[in-house]
Records
---
Amino acid sequence: MTRSSAIGADNEVVISPLPRVLDPHRLPNHIAIIMDGNGRWANERRLPRAMGHSAGVDALKRTLRLCSDWGINVLTVYAFSTENWSRPREEVNFLMSLFERVLKKELQSLNLKKVRIDFLGDLDQLPSRLQDLINEATEVTAKNNGICFNVCTNYGGRRELVLAAQRLALKAVEGDLDPNLIDENIFASELLTANSGDPDLLIRTSGERRLSNFLLWQLAYSEIHVTDIYWPDFDVKDLTSALLDYQSRTRRFGGVEPMPPNDI
Ligand code: FPP
């Protein structure tokens, strides 16, 4: 049985099969998502922005379940950036209480589905009730062997790099590390994604073509898929399109494509 599933009527287990257009052997191991467009989705419907974020939670639950059912090992999402504090106080407060409500409500089902949840970012600046819930969710799901779900919260890519550099410098000053030995592997081991590795695919919704300070180191060789769909509308066909797009790419990691054998 696939390790994740939705619980349907009569507690029957419902697993979404991988669409037949996708090659099960060429799926990304790690998908990262910039979930953008909640506000515009709400504006277009003359709804408060908060309703866009609530609809965004539904899209996130849908996407996490599909990724889990289809055998993706890691999903990393950008929930709140270090820059998002500059939004109107009302919206920031709403987002913080939304994170709390969702965590409280979903923890049990995430755990049942064997999801391992982790929060990446400067968590000590978050409201203390949210920090407590984050600690609880991380501890309760730590030993799960299903999809690893990273929620970037109060996350900034530059800040992550600066903190990694500080930690390495401190180790060097204390005599625990020879600066000449610092290489890409040692540097990456100081990043918040040390246990998840780099995303193979980045999906960004709502059409913007920017990284917005997201996973600046980790996205160096990721394939990028941008869709005009607003995040709350992102569904199974959009995830399928993103994966089809990914499977159409030849990943060269800076090398050259292998030449086909010469016809003699
Ligand atoms: C970007 O849309 C979205 C966000 C800043 C918030 C994303 C958060 C969620 C989807 C909820 C996640 C919940 C949990 C528990 C992880 P925007 O507001 O920037 O949209 P706009 O660009 O159209 O204004």
---
Amino acid sequence: PPTAPLHLISNVNETSVNLEWSTPLSSGGRQDLSYNVVCKRCGPEGTRCQPCGNGVHFSPQQLSLRATKVSINDLQAHTNYTFEIWAVNGVSQQSPGPEQAVSVTVTTNQAAPSPVNSIQAKDITRHTISLAWQQPEKANGVILEYEVKYYEKDQNERSYRIIKTSSRNTDIKGLTPLTSYVFHVRARTAAGYGEFSAPFEFMTNSVPAPIIGDGTNSTVLLVSVVGSVVLLLILISAFVISRRRSKYSKAKQDADEEKHLHQGVRIYVDPFTYEDPNQAVRQFAKEIDASCIKIEKVIGIGEFGEVCSGRLKMPGKREICVAIKTLKAGYTDKQRRDFLSEASIMGQFDHPNIIHLEGVVTKCKPVMIITEYMENGSLDAFLRKNDGRFTVIQLVGILRGIASGMKYLSDMSYVHRDLAARNILVNSNLVCKVSDFGMSRVLEDDPEAAYTTRGGKIPIRWTAPEAIAYRKFTSASDVWSYGIVMWEVMSYGERPYWDMSNQDVIKAIDEGYRLPPPMDCPVALHQLMLDCWQRERGDRPKFGQIVNMLDKLIRNPNSLKRTGGETTRPSTTLLEPVSPELSSALGSVEDWLQAIGMERYSDNFTAAGYTSPEAVVHMTQEDMGRIGISSAAHQNKILTSVQGMLSQMQQIQGRMVPV
Ligand code: ACK
């Protein structure tokens, strides 16, 4: 037999081990030398060893190895293993002995859990899918939680939702009926997240509750009849409630959304709640070695120092373009904390419309924040440079991206407070990303911010009245700012309220005046802006509703064709206030359609921008056909009602409404 292999070297990589050795001093004078690997899992200090079993994988193989190396994968994390390499030939079996083997003992490192193998749908209704799954085959530690990622199959995979749960099942609520959804699940241990499972697809139902039995069964029939009566009662009460509410505060919609949020979507953590803000930086931002960064040129000046462009090459990854924000020399402790707070905030976000943090450099000077590079810079300057060059659909695409990023932030309970086109960055594919998350930015950084009478600096033109008056900053005040961003985008970077003074802007808004539609702006988009600028913050749409509305407009480009046209109104004059009396007396378009039994056209009206009674009274028969109402009987019914609405309006206003 041969003697033992020599110089056995081990290399541990998480739960894999690579072994290499040299050929033995003596091959036994034969040509048929090969090697076998024995794997033992052991207790502490190499005690109580037992065979590794089937789950461990050897590459290229465990027995009859010709080469002098092997890689062993899928070991358990934090476990002691002893590996023996046996040199064998055709006569080894005659006199096996320990002198033919060499051994090594290693401890594996931590590893994330293996992927979840399968997901089952335990129950499916119109709006809910109840999921369950098994623990991953290799948990590699205690599973702290699972993350379920899901999205509508027909939608862009990048606009997904995440739900976290500590159990192996969850109910995904608030789904659209008869729609296919794709689900992925992953587990998290102290070592981090494992990989997401493969996609699993399930479709929501068209009936309110799962039907058990074959339908001829009398119990089922009874259940369905009782169910229908209950459903009818619910619908009637929902209708009664909805008549008292504005279109954006529908009880059901809100309740659905609330439930959805409280199911476990991640909440943003304010880095200033940490006793030591450096800990927040360590937790949320990756430390990058300065040698991986090449600074190329200065592209701007930020509050804390220069902003540069450059390249980042991390080991094992390809080189990418990055933006580098630097902290200028001579900073105070507070400045360093404030500067790095932006990274602690940004590092918590992961969304295609939120600027992505690559990491920070804090261990040497200058201190730096590294983010993805956005080739086209800030949105306001980019639009001004490209005045009139985009199609309406491209502009709506820009708006959709920003709304989607803001929806993500509001789902995480993060209030931006300074949403404006100057704080959106644009990349080479025209993808817009929300940026500027520093804690002190609203106070110090924004040149637009002005001091208010109550102290504190606020970018007046972009800020909701309640936030200016008593600093009530919420996602609803972010929606107001979003409406201003819509106006900036549709006017290619025009300054909101032109050269009016801040004081005049505050006064005009308080008196009910609003910005008019920019030139060639589709009515539907201007209506959405007006909705964002509702005085009552509860009446403003939620970001989720804005995204849905924009998606509808993109899917139905005809709805964007209707513009104010050659309006008599010069576009630099504010719109007159709408009488609150008039709006509430006439109710919403949805309520009106329901009242005349034409609610089936509700989406056609919304998508085409006929979202207020004032817009509807101008409609002609031709308009009806254009928005997809082809039945002459239905057109007549709606037009007759429109006449009634018009005279009601004239009575309330005491004057003629131009038609
Ligand atoms: O309008 P800009 O070219 O875009 O000028 C400002 C400048 O730095 C000061 O903030 C630009 N900038 C900031 N972050 C980035 C980024 N991630 N990618 C590209 N440019 C950026 C910004």
